[in-house]
Structure formats: C-alpha cells, structure tokens
Amino acid sequence: MKELMSGNEALARGFYEAGCHFATAYPGTPSTEILENMSKYKEITSEWAPNEKVAMEAAIGASIAGGRAVAAMKMVGVNVGSDPLFTYAYMGVNGGFVFVSADDPGMHSSQNEQDNRNYAPFARIAMLEPSDSQECYEMAKASFDLSEKYNVTVMIRTTTRVNHSKSLVEYGERVEAPFKDYDRKLGQSRFDAVPALSRKLRVDLENRLDVLKAYSEESPYNFVEWNDKKIGFVTSGVSYTYLKEVFGDTVSYCKIGFTYPLPIEQIRKFAEQVDTLYVVEELDPYIENQLKIAGIKCIGKEKIPAIGELNPNIIANVFLGTEQETIEVDPKDLIPRPPTLCAGCPHRGFFYDLGKRKNVMIASDIGCYGLSGAAPLYAKDTCICMGGSAGTGHGAQTIFNKKGNGMRVVAVMGDSTFFATGMNGVEGALYNKGNLVTAVLDNRTTAMTGHQENPGTGYTNSGEVTESIQIEDVVRAMGCKNVRTFNPHHLTETKEAIGWALSLEGPSVIIARYPCALKKYSKEDIEVFGRLTRKYAVDEDKCIGCKKCTKTGCPAIFFQTDKKKSWINPAQCVGCSVCSQVCPVSAIHELEVR
Amino acid sequence: MTTTNILLVGVGGQGTVLASNILVKGLVEAGYDVKMSEVHGMAQRGGSVSTQVRFGNKVLSPIIGAGEADIIVSFEKMEALRYLPQLKIGGKVIVNNEALPSAPVQAGLMNYPTNTLEVLKSKADVRVLEASKIAVELGNEKVANIVLFGALAKLMNLDGIDWKDVISRTVKEKFIELNLRAFDKGQEMIQ
User: Which of A93, A172, A220, B143 is deepest in the core (most CB within 10 A)?
Assistant: First the structure.
C-alpha cells in the first residue's frame, strides 16, 4: 500500500505496525500529530500526559512491565523529559522503549533552537534520524526491535521539515508483539536505581555502546552512494534531500540514518576514497566534531551555517557560488500580518484590563496568551519556558519586595500549562510565603497546538469522560486562601478580580474561565457557558470614531479610515461582547437574532 | 521531467489546505512523485499561511527555494506580493482580488495599500481572478478556493488527470455540484 503521509503520520504508522502497545505525549509543535495519529489505532493505548517528564516516565513504566512503548515530544519537551531518560538509559529495556524528539530549527514555533542529537551521546542511547516520511515509517517500525535486541533506549530525532512534509510511504500490516514477562525479581535486579546497582549499570552502559558501534557499521540506515569521487558529503536528516536536490548524482554521499553511535569506520573508508570530504548538517557540528576527534579530515561549519534551517539555496550558494535570481519586493509595499488572538478569544478581556495596569510586571508563559505582548494589548513582559511563569514571577516579586518599589508581578498561564509544570511554580510561591498574583486563563483546552484534552477538561485523548481536575481545588489544597474565578468576557468582573488580587498583601490565584472560541464545545461547556452564537454591530450614527474598540485587538473589528467609523465583520464576530463593553457611547449593540 | 513547484499562499482560514489536498491527491493518483510541505502552528490565528507542493518523476527536497516556484496561487493579494521572491523568473501568479486587512490595518495604524495589484503586475506574469466575488455569486464564499484551483489546473495543463472526479471524491456530497461549478468558473478565467 502506498499513501502520501506526513512524517508524523508515517512515524505513527511505523510504531503501529511494529506492535506498539502504549503511546504517550505532551502536545508541542512539530510533534503533536504523532500521538493524534496513534490514537486512530485502537490496539494502542494512546494518552496525553500532563507534561513530557510524565510521558517519558509512563512509557518507561510500560517498557519495564513488558510492553512496547513510545513517548513523543517537541525539542524543548525533551529538556523536561530528560531526568528519567538519563537513568533509564543505564538500565536497558524490557519491552522496547522509543521516544521521538521533534526539533524545530529556525524556531517556527519554539522559544529557542537546540540540536537534540546531542542528547544521544550525552545519555548514551541509540539514535535514528529519518530524512523523509518513508524513513520515518521504516525507522519507527524497526525501532522496537532495535531497542529490545540491543537492550537500549532508542531516540528518533526529526525536524520540522521531516515532521510536517508529506511524501509517499509504502507501508504494510501490523504484526502483534508479545508482551515480555515481568516479575519483582526482574524489577529489583535491573530497574531499581540505587547507587550500588547504578555503579554496575554504568559499566554495562559503556559496554552496550561498543556493541552498538558494531551495529552502526552494519546498519541498513547508514549507506554510501558512489558517484564522482572528487567531492564526498557526509550528511543526515533532511539535509540529505537538500544536497541531492542541488548535486543529484554528481557527487558521492555517505548518508547516516543511525546517527548514534556513528559508523566511524565506514565514514573513514568513505573519506579515504574522496578528494574532499564535507559534512553537511543542520544546527550543531554534531557529526563533524566526532569525525574530527576520530582524526578524519573534513570541512563542515567553516562553510555551513550553524544557526537556523538549511535549504537547497544555501547549499548551492555555499558550494557553487550560485545566487538564485529572485524578484525583489520593496518592504514599503507590504503590510505585516502577525498572528493575533482570535475573534471571541476569552484571553482578550483579561489582557485588555491587565495591559493598562501600572507598576506591574507580567510574567507570561507558552501558549496563545503569548500573543498578548503585541499591539494593541501590550500585556506581557517575559516568557521563559513552558510552565515557567509562576516560578520566574515569584523570583522577580522577591526582588521587587527587597527593592521596596511596590512593583507587583502577575504570572499568567493557561489551564494545560498549569497542569503541565505551572502548578509547581505556584506551589513554590505559596510555600515560600511569596505574594505572587497568579492568573490561570482556563479556556478548557490546550489551544495553541490544536485543541488537545488536558487534566482539566474532563475528557481523555480517546474521548472518554474522566475526572476533571479543578484548578481552584488544587491551589486551595496547596494552601492558597485567596482564590477567585471570573468570566473574562465580562470586563467589570475581570477588572474587579484583577484589582482585588493586586490589593491583597498575600498571594492569590485568579482564574479566568471561558472556553476557547475555536474549540468544539463539550456537553459540559454548553451547559455552563452556552454557545457563542451572537453577533454585534456598530451603529454608525452613534460611533464617534474614538477607536477604543480597536484597542481590544479583535480581528473582527475594522476601523474605516475614510468614514472614521468602526465596522464589525459579521462573518468573524462570535458575540463575546467585549468591544460593546469598551465603547464609551454604546454604539456597539447585539444584532437581532433572525 | 523536471520537478514542478506550486506555492499556495493565503491567510489562515481561507481554505488553502483543501485546495492543496485536491491538488496532491490528483497528482499522486496520476503517478507523480509528490512532496508537500506546510508550516503549522499559527494557521488559525490570522497569520500568513503557505503550502508548498512539488511534483515530478522523483522529488528530493520537500521545500521550494527562493526564486523557484513555477506557479504561485495566492488567495489574498498582499500575500501574493509577500511571497513573490519565491517565484521563478518567468513564473506565473494567480491572485484572488481580495484584500484582507491585517491587525495593524484593522486598528487604523496602517493603511492597506491601494496599488498592490499594480505592483504585482509590474513584476511578474499575474492573472487576477475575482474568485471571492464569483464564489459569492455561486452561493457560497467558501468555494473561492476551488475557483482558484480551477485556474491553477488550467495553467498546469497536465494530461490524464480528471480533476472534477478528484474534487467529487474529496468534498462532501452535498457540495459536489457547487464545487464543480466553481472549478469550471476558474478554468474559464484562464485563456
């Protein structure tokens, strides 16, 4: 069977066919669709974990108990999941254990750029690096066998272009994998990381690498394509397709798909037969440095940028000196089109008020609410990492308190972010007697990555009803006395809640609760909030052209510069009513329902 | 044959994804090797979106480099200009005569330029289509994407692909008739 698949669909298909039993992930671009596609296969238990550390741990537990398990996460998610990873790497596996690191060179949707190939030698685990969807499928399918045969954690490292590009995949059928046995003796002898055992496992870990080095030399994922021998390229991942695009069959290639441990002897032989050896890889000189340590002469980052994404144009320019002729566009003829909070976004009312507050630092987080920093809301100071707002907010508040300048910190996070790692920051602020204001913008979903369920939504990944963990209950249990919930579409209520929190000397948690306007409302959402089905319109006779409504940043509101009147696009308006509340002359009214 | 590069651009929510899906479905069924690349993340939030489709006997890189698109189909005129540096010298542009203001324009901070089509035409072979107006006349503004796709299919001029059959098998049954009429309208616009 042959089908056009994204890298993420192909990975899911490969894991499925290899008899995967358990899959878990925390959503994050460009990895999210891996688990979403795994969910289509009913033989596999597919779950959203609250964060990447829990995903990694749950998959490890499934592996110890004898199942084949995979965890998927984005580039920076591996940082969160790395604690259990480094220890499990010592132990080998029982059922096959694989995780996917979906890296994002060029930072299309990430807060930093890192080359997670470095995790493989750091943790001493096997690494596969596919360059297209067919390889995603094949490597995913082979990964559990590799993991079990060599008793090793396997990392599959992809990049945005591999995850999100579609190409043809020839695929097959699922073969069930038998569960491995487990008993307590096995657990105690291999999976209990006390120092006495870990010291022994530490030696095993190095010995395992020797076996893997031998495998790498023979691996079908490492191969040479001989053409003219004047130039030889060592390459991996999507860079291979870029090189082939530029050079076709005019140069020789040593294509590495099993990238840790590297097939050093294979590369050495290749190097000996070509006049000049180049290493072409995105981001860090990961392969290059290892070749140089092994005494293999090569040229790499002297020529190829170590920052951002590569593409065929860069490669052609570097090696052939060709500059692609392009049509020039004068930037003054363009208007920017930044992403914005959607029409009816429940975050709007909250930021409309918060952005106007004086002597406040807004410590924000990873999610849609990050879009609040731009014009016209300007309601964000900082963002460090997923779940980092309350931790950084508490630290900052401590210093402001020492300075005695009256500055207050408001930490802002979403519901999924709260359940991920945000709640730990709140816990720290409460425990250490801080006076942080935490605002949880609970839009009943994980919105930015495309509406995944989370521990607060009341539904599992498979759509089953489950316990909906209440943020109010959690923070009260942590000892927070000052908790208030409000409807962010209601500006007076919002203003009161924020003002109340800032007036308190102690810590507080305020919860803005309203479902995301783009979300498919659950039964409970409709019961509690109703549906956003109203429309608002501007009465042009009343409008004084003050532009106050445009200060909400709603994409449905247009200021007609010719008439000096606002206009609301009825196709976009969902009836949140925030603009009608800010209008000083009551020119914005609800349209009659037809 | 060499690889052909088609770039579809627009604003999140305009239906670029459906048009690209019909395109690649037809190409794959006709036996071409196809690669398609999208950048996700901000698509639903009013940002600029693009889908890259490459096809031929054997396609290598999944992305279209600067100056390498044979045809750009733009669902909005400012986006056509934004992506123009991707066009091959001598390439063709199909553009919907539709202006969607972005956040700074809506807030009255900037004006949407009035000369975008003129600038486009001065720089490349541009076919301007009233796809959104035609779609409204057909009874549903959403089929502007299929009007544009009809024009694209005509410009690509590939033998052996029954695009109407592909459309009929892709869209919901009750919308087949509407989409086929939209496709015809798009084809008629290209001489």
Answer: B143
